[in-house]
Fold these 4 entries.
Entry 1:
Amino acid sequence: MRLAGWRASRTARVSFWAAACFAFVMAVLPHPPEVPGHPSDKVQHIMAFATLAALGAAAYPRAIWVKLLVGLSLFGALIEVVQAIPALHRDSDVVDWLADTATAGLVLLVIRWWRLGG
C-alpha cells in the first residue's frame, strides 16, 4: 500500500489509538516492565511521543497540526496527573510533560515540512 493510502486508512487510526492506549497503560502501571537497554525516563517519554506524533500525523493527515500537538500535549499532561496518584507509586514531573510536548511538536513540524516538499 502506498504511504498516502496508508495515512488515511483505518489501520493508521487503529495503530495510533493502540499506541496511545499502550503508552497510557505503561505510564500508569505501578511497576512497568523493564525496557531493553534501560533508557532513562526522559528517553522513554521522547520515544513514546515521537511515535504518537508520527502515527497521529499519519492517522489524521488532514488535521491541523496544531490541534494534533495540543491533543498530544494534553495527553502528556493527563499522564502526569494520573502519575501523581499516590497509590500508583509513580513520579509526576512537569519536565516529562514538557519533553512530551516538545518532542511531539518537533516531529509534527518535520512531518509538515516534509509534506510541503521540504
Entry 2:
Amino acid sequence: MDNLLIGPLGMFYVPFLVGILAICLGIWHERKKKEEGRRRRGWKYLMFSVIGILSFFAGFYLGDEMHLGYTIFKSSGGPLTIFPFALIIYTLLFPVGLHISRERSLGFILKVFGISFLFFFLTFYGLMAYGAHEHYYAKYISVDKLSAPSDYLNLTEEELEKYPSLKEAIELANKSENGRARLKVHPDEWERIGNFLSEKGSHNIKVGNEYYGVGLICA
C-alpha cells in the first residue's frame, strides 16, 4: 500500500480519493443538518469547477511559460515547474469563490473543495494525456541530398517500396530547391525505417544515381 501511495499510481489515485472523500463528507454533513429550504447550487458548483481549472492553467503559465519554475526552483519540467504556482493561485481563488457564493456551511465548503480539487487534477491529467499522445505521434523523417558520402547503402526500388514515407520524402527532396525535405510519419513506419537503417549500419542511402542522408526526428 505504501508503494502505491508514493509511486506513479499514487499520483493518479490519491487526488481523486481526496476529492471524492471531501464531496462525500460534504453531502453527509448537509444531510445530517437537514437544512430546510435548501436551494439548488448548480452555478456555484460550476464556479468552483472553473476555479480548479483556472488555477492549474495559471500555474502552468507562471511556472512554464514565464519560466518562474526554472528561475525559482531550477526546474525545467516536472511538478516543481507548475504545481507550486498552481496551488498558490488555488489558495487565492478558493476563498474568493466562497465569498461570492455567500455560503458558509461546512458541508458546502467540503463539497466545493472536493469539486475544485478534482477538476484541478483532471486538468493536469488531461494535459498529460494530450502531451503523451502528441509525443507518440510527433515522428518525422528528414532527407537531404548528398554528394557521394564515404559510407552509404544501396537501396533498390523494391526495398524503397516497403517504406512509402521514405519514398515520398525522397521525392520531395528531389523537387525542393535546397534538396531537403521533412515529413511527418506514422510511429510504426518511423520505427521500421529506423530499425532498417540501423541494421544496414548507415543512415546514408543511394537510390539510383542520387545520395541521401536520412534523419529520424522525435519532437
Entry 3:
Amino acid sequence: MRGNPFAGGGVLKSVLVWLKRTAGLVLALAATGGVASFTPSPDGVVVAVAEPLPLPAPRPVPAPRDPADGIVYERGYKAHGADRVLVERWVLAGVAFRERVTVDGALLADRSDGIEVDYVRREWRAGPVRGLSDDCAPTYPELERGLADGTVTESGAGVPVGGYPTTVFRRRGTPMVDVWVNMTTRSPVRCRGAARHAVTFDLVWLPATEANLAQLTAVVPDGFRTVTERGSQHDY
C-alpha cells in the first residue's frame, strides 16, 4: 500500500479545494454512526466501511415514485497527479443525497443530508442544506420528456459500457450533461457534466430497499468529535 496520501498537506489541500467546488448537501440533518473497518473493493482499492452506532434518529426518507429504480449509485475517478480520487454518490432524486470521497484507499470525507464527516481530522459537524448543483444522472423518462420539449438532444452512438452498446444524449440546462443509455434496458449507465474537470460517473440503479435507503446517510465513526463550525480548519 502506498504511503500516507496526506503527507505534506499538498494533495489534501488540492483535493479539499476540489471538494468545495463539487460536493453538495440537501435536506435537513440525518444521523447515524459507526466503527470504521477496512475491506477491499472489487477493483482492489481498500475502502473504509463503517457499522452504524446509535445517534439521534434520522429524518425519514420518503419512498420514491418508482421503488424498482429509486436510487442511483454513481462511481467515478478524478485524476489528481499520481493519486486516485474515488468519488461515490448515492442519490434519491429530489429527496436525499450522499457523497463519499476516497484518496488512494483512504477515506477523506463522507457527506449527506446535513452531515459532514472529516476523516482526516476525525470530526463531524451538522451542515446546512445546500442542494446538489452538478448531479448528472437523469432517469430515462426524464430524458424522454426532454426529447419531447427540446431540452434533450440525441448525440449518436457512444462507447460500450459494461459490454453493451450505448446511445449518448445531451441534456441542456444547468448543468449541461452527457448521458450514455443502454437502449435495450432503457437505463442510463454513464453520465458526465459538461464542466471542465467534471467526473465521469458509471451508474447502477438500485431498488429502494431498506438496506439501499440506509446508504443515503453518511456514517459518523465512533470516537469522532462533534464540531459546530467549519471556520478555517481547512484551507478551502
Entry 4:
Amino acid sequence: MAQPNFSPKPHTYVLLRVFDIPGHGMTPALAQSILALDFPEGDAARIDELNGRANEGELTAEGAELETCININDLLAYWQSKARQTLQPPA
C-alpha cells in the first residue's frame, strides 16, 4: 500500500494567508481561539492507542491515520506557539 505523500509547505502558505500573519498579524481574539483548540477526547484516545501500537510494532494500515494526526498536531502546536507570542506583553 502506498504511503501518503504529505508536504506541509503548501498547507503552511495557505494558512499564513488565512491567519494573515505576514500582513497584520494574529489578533488577540484569534490567538485565544487557537489556544482553545485541541483534539476531542475520542480522537485523543484513538491517537494514544495508535501510538501505543506503533511503539509495539503492531501498527498496520492505521499508519496513515496516525501520520495524519501527527501532522495536524504539529501544525496545531505551531499555531498555538504563534498565538502565545501574540498574547505576550511587549518586553
